[in-house]
Write a sequence for this structure.
């Protein structure tokens, strides 16, 4: 890779070649001048030879330690650029993603952008897709209300990364990392024009798996001592009430196109929050989910 690069795009990947190809094809529509692009594969069971031949401008490395945290850390180590663009392999960057990122880079130490949701299946949406259309990837709220950003669309600098240290595996690594940076005094903002898109989860098993993983990671951040577990139990008991509180958001959403989608999204909202309550109470009692 050229040492003259000013930007590095870091893409963790595991066993999802069609979406990785779509991501890289969209990156080609960006201005890749002075840009390193590195795909860090977590030892996928499928061969990457074909996609490597199709994208010779991309550096492919293998990180045997499983987890996006290890892959992102390896990507930073494999690059030299001062600006770091993080995107996930299943995301699709806008054609001006890098151009916008360069323009806004000086606005803050960490910048999270907009993540739009799109469906990979024809309409009408099922419950999981309708739920995701309303609730998935609200990066503005993550950043401006909760004080963290996801790493599916994140821009920062190498000096910030070096000062904070790498992502930590086993927790919600992007949330923990950005909150750690903010706690150290680095600024974090949301930028709506800095855009990528992400496919919705296509069915209940995929949505359940996402939230099971998220619940496990959040529990680790919550803490596991007796007081923390009691706090977690109360949060779990509040899950059904949160579904009631969020129902108006479904009913008023302009992202749902029919009464059927509204009904399916509402049903999935209650189903998921009740499932999360069960998981969280199990965790609070010292069990596994």
């Amino acid at each position: 890779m050229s040492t003259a690069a000013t930007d590095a795009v870091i893409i963790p990947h595991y066993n999802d070649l069609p979406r990785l190809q779509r991501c890289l094809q969209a990156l080609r529509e960006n201005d890749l001048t002075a840009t390193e692009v590195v795909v860090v594969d977590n030892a996928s069971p499928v061969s990457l030879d074909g996609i490597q031949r199709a994208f010779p401008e991309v550096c492919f490395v293998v990180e045997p330690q499983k987890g996006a945290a290890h892959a992102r850390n390896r990507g930073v180590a494999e690059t030299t650029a001062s600006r770091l663009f993080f995107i996930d392999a299943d995301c699709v960057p806008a054609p001006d993603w890098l151009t916008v990122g360069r323009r806004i880079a000086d606005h803050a130490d960490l910048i999270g952008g907009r993540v739009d949701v799109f469906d990979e299946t024809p309409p009408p949406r099922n419950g999981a897709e309708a739920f995701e259309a309303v609730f998935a990837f609200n990066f503005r709220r993550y950043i401006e209300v909760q004080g963290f950003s996801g790493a599916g669309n994140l821009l920062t600098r190498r000096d910030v990364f070096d000062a904070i240290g790498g992502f930590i595996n086993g927790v919600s690594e992007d949330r923990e990392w950005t909150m750690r940076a903010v706690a150290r005094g680095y600024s974090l903002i949301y930028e709506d024009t800095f855009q990528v898109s992400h496919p919705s989860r296509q069915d209940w098993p995929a949505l359940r798996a996402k939230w099971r993983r998220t619940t496990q990671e959040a529990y680790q951040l919550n803490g596991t001592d007796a007081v923390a577990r009691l706090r977690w139990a109360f949060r779990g008991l509040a899950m059904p009430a949160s579904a009631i509180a969020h129902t108006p958001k479904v009913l008023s959403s302009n992202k749902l196109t029919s009464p059927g989608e509204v009904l399916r999204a509402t049903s999935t909202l209650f189903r998921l929050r009740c499932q999360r309550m069960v998981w969280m109470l199990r965790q609070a009692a010292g069990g596994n989910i």
Notes: DSSP finds twelve helices and eight strands in the chain.
